[in-house]
Design a protein that fits this description.
Helix content is about 50%, strand content about 15%. The chain has about 400 residues and is α/β, with parallel strands linked by helices. Helix 1 (about 5-25) packs parallel to helix 14 and helix 3 (about 70-80) runs parallel beside helix 12. It is globular, with a radius of gyration of 22 Å.
Length: about 400
């Protein structure tokens, strides 16, 4: 078989698996989180049509270049975060680039201190350096947020400290409230501004034991996402001082983010703030129940090794690690869904080392129905299929 034919066949296999996963999510009777990705366009539009009149006067004219419903969303976010103003952005990538280039102009220092696992470093193709003329430095390589000592003693100046709360790729981890306040104070000692990458800031209130505005008050500026936890269609907001937000809106236009009309996205964000935001603390608390049940379930199955990280989740999302190849784990998870109607691990499994993989688990509204016994039973069913798939994979490799 030619290389080109092999690539086509491999692509086809990936597409088939993707379709199986999509169909399994839709057909599953029991999942921990379903989200909007499993819905059709018709279903998402129907959901928005139902929610929109609850959050905004839909008989008003549609927005034009950021007025109307978009402006209402900005005011709502600013109030929730306790900031003077907020600006709506089509993406978080754009929002954070704009925020940090504005701060760089004000501080005179284009260097941004962050974690090497921060979203802009890992998932945005070096946009800070390639597009916005910023320079990044990394304060620590540990899988946690930097400490006050690391912030204070870093051996070169930086104009801004960016903190991703929670740090997703390290396991959705957060510092303690005391640690966070010490880190912010250390940055202030260095005359650095503090920016929160708060894509998932909405769900940190349980861990910190503080309301959103008190958490956001620690930072000079905050970015939040509308689709990662709130089930919006897309979009983000940057909140901070009025002068910063006004400048950010100018750069938003220059970056191409001044869309003519954005009412569907803005309405879905307002709906998320009304429907999902109040429920996030409940999701976080139940995620801790699910995580404990997963640990107990794997311990009782005879699996050589399993890890739930963090052991007590900081948010409603966490990681599960198992000593198998990703392909084996994905196939076992999909088979369980197809054969039992229970889809325990709906996320992708990523390679974490030789014979080791991890997946992200999210507990949402659908997951609230799961008891401890439900989770343990699902783990046992998953492991039985995992053992079969691992045996097949071993036979093929030999």
């Amino acid at each position: 078989m030619s290389d080109e034919a092999e690539q086509v066949e491999e692509r086809s296999a990936e597409e088939q698996l993707r379709e199986r996963r999509r169909a399994a999510v839709r057909a599953a009777r029991r999942v921990l989180w379903r989200g909007g990705l499993g819905l059709t366009i018709r279903e998402r539009l129907a959901s928005l049509a139902q929610a929109a009149p609850e959050v905004y006067d839909v008989d008003e004219p549609a927005d034009i270049y950021g007025n109307g419903v978009v402006a209402a969303l900005e005011e709502r976010v600013a109030a929730l975060l306790g900031k003077e103003a907020a600006a709506f952005f089509p993406t978080g990538t754009m929002a954070q680039q704009v925020a940090l280039r504005c701060w760089a102009a004000r501080t005179g220092n284009p260097t941004v201190a962050l974690h090497p696992l921060a979203h802009p470093e890992v998932h945005e193709r070096h946009a800070f350096t390639q597009v916005s003329g910023l320079r990044t430095v990394r304060l620590t390589s540990e899988p946690r947020l930097p400490t006050a000592e690391e912030v204070r003693e870093f051996d070169e100046p930086y104009g801004a400290l960016m903190l991703e709360l929670p740090l997703r790729d390290a396991g959705f981890v957060l510092p303690t409230w005391e640690e966070l306040t010490e880190v912010v104070a250390a940055a202030r000692e260095r005359d650095a501004v503090v920016h929160f990458d708060g894509a998932r800031l909405w769900e940190t209130t349980v861990h910190f034991g503080r309301p959103l505005d008190e958490i956001a008050d620690l930072a000079d500026s905050v970015y939040v996402s509308f689709y990662k936890s709130l089930e919006g269609f897309a979009g983000a907001a940057l909140a901070g001082p009025k002068t910063l937000v006004a400048e950010a809106k100018t750069w938003r236009h220059r970056y191409g983010g001044m869309a003519f009309q954005q009412f569907p996205t803005a309405l879905s964000a307002l709906a998320g703030l009304q429907r999902e935001l109040p429920r996030l603390p409940e999701y976080v608390r139940h995620a801790r129940v699910v995580a404990a049940a997963l640990r107990e379930g794997f311990a009782g199955t005879g699996v050589a090794w399993a890890r739930v990280h963090p052991e007590e989740p900081h948010t409603h999302q966490f990681q599960v690690w198992l000593p198998y190849d990703p392909d084996v784990l994905v196939e076992a998870a999909v088979r369980q869904a197809e054969e039992t109607g229970t889809y325990l691990f709906t996320g992708y499994w990523e390679r974490g080392g030789p014979g080791l993989a991890l997946t992200e688990v999210t507990v949402g509204a659908a997951g609230l129905e799961w008891t401890v016994d439900d989770v343990k039973a699902a783990v046992a069913e998953f492991v039985s299929r995992l053992t079969e798939e691992a045996g097949r994979a071993g036979a093929v490799s030999r």
